[in-house]
Amino acid sequence: MMNETVHNNLVSNKPVSPIIKVHNRRWVILIIYMIYTAISCFQWTEYSIITNLVVDYYGVSASAVDWTAMCFMVAWPVFVFPASYMIERVGLRAAALIGAFLTAIGAAIKLFAYGRDLFYVVLIGQTVVAISQVFILNLPPKIAVTWFKPSEVSTVCSLGVFGMALGIALGFLLPPVIVKNHENVDDIGADINVMCWGTAIAIAPVALTVLFYFPEEPPYPPSQAQLEGRENKEVVNFKVFAESLKVLFKNKAFLIHAFSYGLNLAIYSAIGTLLNQFILNYFEEAQEDAGRMGLVMILVGMLGSILVGVVLDKTHRYKEAAIFVFLMSAISMGGFLFALEMRSKWMIYVTIGVFGFFLNAYLPAGIEFATEITFPSPESTVAGLLFAISQVFGVVFTIALAEINTNYGTFYSVLGQILILIVGTITTCFTPNTLNRQKAFLKDRILFEKVPDIES
Q1: Which of 46, 198, 303, 398 is 20 to 30 A distant from 166 in Cα terms?
Q2: Which regions span the lipid bilayer (predicted)?
């Protein structure tokens, strides 16, 4: 009977009693999110990791191919404010639907790019997918606080980032395997078309699953903070949204942290875009190695993102974790540069794996730290602003580092990334360590030491 009542509440969104419980469906919701996030993020690097083959087929420059990845960075600062407003206005379910269906539409558009003069269609499709990510990548903290108990929030946020990392990993792995370096360029085009069909077929059922299974919120709030949020829920209009932005831009701790986070994610974006070119500058005909090295970076990084979430749930040492992983990212990037100069492939695989571990670990740690210092500001808006600032830095640094790579060599381009990471480590040290969200969660731990689960 209880299960039936819960199901009816989920479907009809009827008011429920002020009871704090967590719902078992929360893990299914998280898995759905991770899958469509992975498919969206796969498309970020699917062309740039095979830059040389895309250049051969479409007859465009390497810089033009770089824009298949950089359009994702441009979309954030352009669309982050309207997207964040829509998420707060229409809710979690609508944001999930928009993100999933825009991903599907973008993938479908690229099916029509099968022709050597149709590179512009590729860019249109990539741009649509890029816009979808503005509705996708800032959702993990909102999903975490809406569906999960306080002791699970950091882990859930890390698992959300895990979905992003999984997609990027597949974006490094699969394109070099699917698209081969044929002598006949038409065969290269046929392989690219196979890749596009695979993506379109993968996202279609996932988008339908979001449509029919992804509810707005669970029937009961999972925490005291969420209970109070529901009872005092304010209708979001543009004035309310603008006020929340004003609060964020006046928050000194958030601004310093956003700068640091932007530097870190800019390096993430730059190396994801330029890795193929870095490796081919040292090893000829090594595009498959470049893909595998990117895969190692992301797979090991996925482990880092999960571990940091577990550690943060136990320790709540957000600033300390951010400083540590930032510093280790800089040191391991130095190891990667040394391995390149030694022209040792096995050393590159090892060092880029270590680099990926720490670089990916910073992503959820940085989001969680931002959520702490800005609480009770809307989680999706905070994450959206972080990504927007990061993508502005990403465009600037990717273009600059690509020019350095072309004109001065990979050594100086990678050295520039190391210096950027060192600057980010230093600025993180100066970020005020205000844990506002933990103060609210402390009330949960005092009043509700054990939050019961309810069956789906």
Answers
A1: 398
A2: 27-45, 65-87, 94-113, 119-141, 153-174, 194-214, 254-275, 295-312, 321-340, 346-370, 382-402, 414-435
Report phi then psi at 454, rounded to 5: -125, 145
Rounded Cα–Cα distance for residues 258 and 245 (Å): 14
Three-class DSSP category at 452: coil
Consecutive H or E run containing 23? strand 22-23
CATH number for region 21-221+248-448:
1.20.1250.20
Tens digit of each residue's pLDDT, the chain (456 residues):
444 444 444 444 444 446 777 777 888 888 999 998 999 999 988 998 888 899 999 999 988 998 998 888 888 888 888 887 887 777 888 888 999 999 999 999 999 999 899 999 999 999 999 999 888 887 887 888 888 887 777 788 778 878 888 888 888 889 988 998 888 989 999 999 999 999 999 999 999 998 988 887 777 777 666 666 666 666 666 677 777 788 888 888 889 999 999 999 888 888 877 888 888 888 887 777 887 888 888 888 888 888 888 888 788 888 888 899 999 999 999 999 999 999 999 999 999 999 999 988 888 888 888 888 887 777 777 877 888 888 888 888 888 998 998 889 889 999 999 999 999 999 999 988 777 666 655 655 555 445 455 544
Taking the C-alpha atoms of residue 204 and residue 106, their distance in angstroms, rounded to an integer, is: 11
3-state secondary structure of 417: helix
d(CA 81, CA 402): 29
364 by Cβ neighbours in 10 Å (0-12 / 13-18 / 19+) ranks as: buried
Give residues with Cβ within 8 angstroms of 90, minimum separation 6: none
Question: Rounded to whole angstroms, how far apart are CA atoms 105 and 109?
Answer: 6
Please, which residues bridge with residue 453 across strands?
22
Which residues, 6 or more positions from 160, have their beta carbon under 8 angstroms from its beta carbon?
Answer: 30, 33, 34, 37, 139, 140, 141, 143, 144, 364
Alpha-carbon separation of residue 230 from 216, 225, 235, 388 (angstroms): 13, 9, 11, 28
Task: Report the distance separating Cα 159 and Cα 33, nearest Å.
Answer: 10
